[in-house]
C-alpha cells in the first residue's frame, strides 16, 4: 500500500480520447483535491465540436464492432480487466487524490471494477424461441441500440463508469463516456490505457461540465443515455432525452432504510451497519441513510454504533491510518453542513460528531443523530454524507410504514437472527433491492436499480444488458 510520502507522481498530460486519438483542448477544468481544497491538476474540457467528432467516430466504428460475436467482444473486455489490474496502483492513487476516499478503498474499487467487467462479459444473451409449431416460428432476439452516451458521477468514478461502459460494449454498442467534472482524471487515464485495446471510435472519453452532458442527452445521433447521479438531474436527463425518444437507464439517489429487529446482537450488527452507512463518507447511493432500531435494543445498539463512529479516523485518504476521507466537493460539503445546522436547530441529540473541523479540506466527522423528528431534512432527504439518524420504533408494522414513506426506493435492509422473519419483512420494502442481514451487496449477475424516483431500468445481469439492446421479433410462416 502506497504511503502519503511515496505517492505515484501524477502525469500532467491528460487528454480526451476521440476516434482512437488523444486530443488536447484550449479550455481546461480545474480539478481540486478535496483533502486540501487545492487545484492539483488541469483537465481538458470538451465542447460541441469535440462531441460531434466523437459521435461521428462512434457511428463509423459501429458496424464493425456490432458485427463481432459476444465471444470476440468479451475477449476485449478481458484485456480491459487485465489492464486495470496492471495499472491499479497508479489509478488508485489518482482516484484518491481527485475523489478523496481512502487509498485502500480506491484499490478495492478498481479491483471490483475489473472483476465486475469480467462477470458482465460472461453473461449469455440467448435468442428466445416464443413459438415453434406447425404453422409458425417466432423468436425474440436482441440487437445493439447504436451509440450509448454514459454520464457518471463523482462518488465512485471507476465502478460507475465500468458497469455501463462494459455493458454497452459487450452488447455491441459504441460509447461516448463523460465523467463528472469534479473527478475526470482517473476516467481519462483509463481511456488512454484502453485505446491500446479497442478499435478506434469504439470508445470515446470526453470531459466537461453540465452543458456537455445536456448536449449529449439531446444529441440526435446518440441512441441511449446511461446516467448515474441525483434524482433532480436524472429528471432533467429524461426530459432532454425525450426529444429524440432515447432509451435511458437512470440510476439515481436513495434514502435507504435499515430495520434492526429486537433479536439481533447489537454490537455485531453495529459494526456492519457502520460500514454500510459511512463507507466513502456516506457518499454512496445505496448506503444506509436511515436506521430504524427496535426499542428493546435501541440504547445498546446506539451505544455500539457510536463507539464505531468515535473510533473511525478521518482525514486525507492517502494516509493509511484514516478510515474515512473528505466529502468530495464544496457544493456537497455545504449541503451536508446545512443539514447539520438544521438538525441542531430542531434540538436533536448527537451521539458522535456534529462539529465540523476548522481545517483545510472538506472534512466532516462521522455523525450519528438521535431524538430527531421523522419529518426533518436529515430523515426525509438523501444527505449523501457522513451524518445518519437512528430512529426508535416499537411495532415492526410502524417501522415498515416509515421505511416506505419516501419518494426514494433504491434499496433497504432488514437485520435479525430469524432469517425467515426478516425475509418476510424485507419483501415488503418498496425498493429495487431488499437485503437481509447485509447491505450494499451487488454482483455482475444480479440486476441493480431503483423503484419510485430512485431510477429507471437496471444495471448488471441479463436484465441490465438487455437495456442496452433493442428487442426484435422475427416471425416466420412455415
Description:
It is a single chain. Helices cover 37% and strands 22% of the residues. It contains 15 helices and 20 strands. The chain has helices spanning 48-66, 70-86, 88-99, 103-120, 159-170, 185-194, 210-218, 231-241, 266-278, 298-311, 330-345, 377-380, 396-404, 419-426, 461-466; strands at residues 16-18, 21-23, 28-33, 38-44, 128-132, 136-144, 147-151, 174-178, 203-205, 224-228, 247-251, 256-260, 288-294, 349-352, 367-370, 387-393, 411-415, 433-436, 455-456, 469-477. The strands form five sheets. The chain has a seven-stranded mixed sheet with strand order 14-15-16-13-12-17-18, with helices on both faces. The longest helix is centred in the first third of the chain and has 19 residues, at 48-66. The radius of gyration is 23 Å and the shape is globular. Mean pLDDT is 96; it is low at 1-10.
The rounded distance between the terminal residues' Cα atoms is 65 Å
- Lateral strand order in the biggest sheet: 14-15-16-13-12-17-18
Number of helices: 15
Low-confidence stretches: 1-10
Oligomer: single chain
Report the CATH superfamily of the largest domain.
Aldehyde Dehydrogenase, Chain A, domain 1
Q: Provide the CATH architecture of the largest domain.
A: 3-Layer(aba) Sandwich
Tags for this model:
6-stranded mixed beta sheet, 7-stranded mixed beta sheet, alpha/beta, 478 residues, Aldehyde Dehydrogenase, Chain A, domain 2, Aldehyde Dehydrogenase, Chain A, domain 1
